[in-house]
């Protein structure tokens, strides 16, 4: 089956132009290959600065990659010269963390929602009006919201409008970039549940980006863990949550409060900070913070490889014959 979205060896490199870093190359996204199936939610988790948003923006075609391929239903869409540009823009939409910054403060909500239709010359005025009504209903807001301004709304309501605006053109795929991170915890669940309901109702596919593994766990079918521009682990959400293989994922998972006693894990506290992305360590980029780092980690960069079916990890521990899976588990638990 052809995936809805496929990233192949995607890269986004920036060359710094300003002294004292002039000429240094920042590898924001460094050879990412991942497929997203129709109807699923792929969670993308990692610390801020690891390249998640850059990857999301490339996937939504808001940024051009400097290398690699981006495919939509098998068609290469990375080049700006590709056909169906307008059609593609409609099918893939991006929802920002803080919709307030992307909502024009001078426009009423009704106009903000109608705008994407107008820009794409879709529908007559009466049709656009009723589409806005339907959309307000879908996101749980009544008609009176048409005449309000974004600044009159709560954070949760504004994010509902941000989501509604992204849905006005009937997209198939949404990149959700930290969609609840700016919201109070009490409001987060409402917005997440709305996203789940909309996904069902409209057969949507999501790339769900968050630094919060708890939120990603709630939302995702599969999860990809990103560290310094690379995917270091990917698999089914429950599998990765129960059996994290990469030392970085193990640290992230260990920081989640356990729901049941059986899930209790020892907290692994990461040493040090995320290294400067323009000075990525040689060998394994995680070695400066990894308690299992050994000689090979300094000289050789690990690659993402399947350890179990559908569960891949990028770490030398898993490719070394001297370690068996069980031995590693003992070391870790
Ligand atoms: Fe740690 Fe080495 Fe694995 Fe990197 S390759 S995560 S440094 S053990
Ligand atoms: Mg970000």
UniProtKB/TrEMBL annotation:
The keyword ATP-binding applies. Keywords: ATP-binding, Nucleotide-binding, Transport. InterPro entries: AAA+_ATPase (IPR003593), ABC_transp_ATP-bind (IPR050319), ABC_transporter-like_ATP-bd (IPR003439), ABC_transporter-like_CS (IPR017871), Oligopep_ABC_C (IPR013563), P-loop_NTPase (IPR027417). Residues 5-253 form the ABC transporter domain. PROSITE patterns: ABC_TRANSPORTER_1, ABC_TRANSPORTER_2. One of its GO terms (biological process) is peptide transport. It holds the Pfam family ABC_tran. One of its GO terms (molecular function) is ATP binding. The keyword Magnesium does not apply. NCBIfam families: oligo_HPY (TIGR01727), PRK11308.1 (NF008453). Belongs to the ABC transporter superfamily. PANTHER family: D,D-DIPEPTIDE TRANSPORT ATP-BINDING PROTEIN DDPF-RELATED, TRANSPORT ATP-BINDING PROTEIN. This is Dipeptide ABC transporter ATP-binding protein. It comes from Paenibacillus agri.
